[in-house]
Amino acid sequence: MILNKLSILNYKNIRQAELAFSPKLNCFLGNNGMGKTNLLDAVYYLSFCRSYLNTPDTQVISWEQNVCVVQGDYAYEGREEEIFCALRRGQKKVFRRNKKEYERLSDHIGLLPLVMVSPLDSILIQGGSEERRRFMDLIISQQDKTYLQALIQYNKVLVQRNALLKAPDFQPAFLEVLDQRLTDFGRVVYEGRRRMIEEFTPIFNRYYQAIAGSSEEIRLRYVSQLDEADLRDLLARGRERDRVVGYTTMGIHKDELEMKLEDFLIRRIGSQGQNKSFLIALKLAQFAFLKAKSGTAPLLLLDDIFDKLDAERVARIISLVRQEEFGQIFITDTNRKYLDEILSAVADERVLFEVERGEARLMV
User: Where are the beta strands (DSSP E) in the chain?
Assistant: First the structure.
């Protein structure tokens, strides 16, 4: 899959841009705060209908403007795909594929596989368990529609159940119905996460060893309450406690993905370099996993990934992204030294932009 052209109007600090890309390597060079990350974020938005930076839609639209438009023209398995997104203040966002509007935004997820690596990824290690669940969900949802719909429905039922637990006119019969629905949807999510981590872990180990250049043992361990019992039994067992606290204490919304270095959680013992190597390996493994499942190379977005890495780790990453298995790549950096090293490896299949104050200028 290749993003040939990107058109932007009023996306954050990018007032207007019309960019044509190389099918291999596209680099954005500029100081911090100039708009490099916002350009990548606009590409991400076209794949996932939301900002990677979790920016609310009302703040995606440029200051003092009323409308934002992002459009991408893709070449995908011998066909062309035009994806159009428009946001207007006070109105529902519009997403169109080849000029036909989606009825449900979830129908779009997975069409344009994409992996983004960013300094914000540190939250995967340092943040709460919800961040690691989101990581698993994002990977699986891009290649499994049944999983995505089960996850959406589970979260809707969970909201209903929590509301019922707090209601003064509590209805036990209705709770029974909700518990069965949670069990059905939760089982799909649990099995999907368990299978994914089993397949994903060997790929992740391979990339970590390639980046870190060491024999350190790293592990991913999926932990769920459903490892021990059926969700229906767990919900029944915790019903009285749930009524007291006013929310559901059992279920796949409590799952955890333990990230370990040797026998310890990496967030407790990992150095800056080890943490960053761990995160980049996670994302490159995500790329390889999605490519294997979909048969096409996702877009790879690398946002300022060389900061806080030693020269040897940088060299290993550069060597990895040079490989043929990676398709179209977008890189941002403030340091042209690393970009020049990558550019020198890809001959003419490259484009370099200088980004300043929200404007991207093609460099020779």
Answer: 2-11, 14-20, 25-29, 67-76, 79-88, 94-97, 100-101, 114-117, 218-223, 256-261, 264-265, 299-303, 329-333, 350-356, 359-363
* Mean pLDDT across the chain: 92
Phi and psi for 68 in degrees, rounded to 5? -130, 140
Angle, helices 311-321 vs 172-212, to 10°: value is 110
Provide the whole-model pTM: 0.92
Amino acid letter at 103?
E
Two tokens, residue 37: 């990350």
Copy the structure tokens of residue 118: 């960013």
pLDDT of residue 348: 60
Q: In angstroms, rounded to a whole number, what is the distance separating the alpha carbons of residues 70 and 87?
A: 9
**CA neighbor of 259 nearest in space, from 193, 322, 204:** 204
Which residue from 53, 48, 73 is spatially nearest to 13, judged by alpha carbons?
53
Q: Are 46 and 85 in contact (CB under 8 A)?
A: yes
Measured CA to CA, the distance from residue 214 to residue 253 in angstroms comes to 35
User: Looking at beta carbons, which pairs linking 238-246 to residues 24 or more positions away fall under 8 Å?
Assistant: 239/175, 242/165, 243/165, 243/170, 246/162, 246/165, 246/166
Asked whether the predicted pLDDT for residue 315 surpasses 80, the reply is: no
**What tokens appear for 260 in the block?**
């370990």
Write out pLDDT tens, residues 222-271: 999 999 999 999 999 999 999 999 999 999 999 999 999 988 999 999 88
